[in-house]
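Run Armadillo repeat containing 10 through structure prediction, thanks.
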Amino acid sequence: MLLSCLQTSNNPSDRCRILLTLGNAAAFTVNQNLIREFEGIHIIAGFLSDPAAEVRVQTLNALNNLCMNVQNQEQIKVYVPQVLELIEMSPVNSELQLGALRLLTNLSVTDKHQHLLKESITLLLSLLVVSNEALQVQALKVLVNLSSNPDMMDDIVQAQAPASVVLLFDARTATAVLLRLLTFAGNLKAWRPSAQVADELRRKQDCLFRVMLDESSQLHSRLVQLLSHPDGEIQAQVARILT
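Sure, done. The structure for Armadillo repeat containing 10 is below.
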């Protein structure tokens, strides 16, 4: 009944309420399966292009809960390009961007669908330097997931990255952001390229390797400064990376 109402509703506020209800229902495994069996995932995902921004937000939230189910991920993965486009086209720090990143976080927890995000690395890195704390944390959750997979590392280090990313390794950066940044940096540092690959990457202008891993990067000196950070967990993470 809810799915039928959603398809026939002409009122954006009604669509929001129906999607909110479906999203809440999808917090439970039995309903995640029911919604999929009723073809509900594709019906709900159709509202990713709804003219009303608040409807798109509730659509992302519902898909996010549905994404907690492995079988549902097989259907949701086809909407990754549309979700990435929403991030790119939406206002910075908007609920749309946050909802889209939450969905990508759940979809990238295991390495099964991470390859679908290969083209999103530059977008995620760019968000880090322009967004607020909540969005930075969510973008970093995706980057940490991707960088935990050795098969993704070649794509990550070759991605274009703003040079100002290293400036976030600073005592004034929010602790929640800094901890995830350090986890991401630790994953990158654990990657060991051959001398030939490293030389090739040095010739790539503005790639993440040059910004964060090359000998010319400011990262090392900024990490040393963080050894005196008042937070013990940050100190420990920095020490692990440096050693």
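The chain has 16 helices and no strands.
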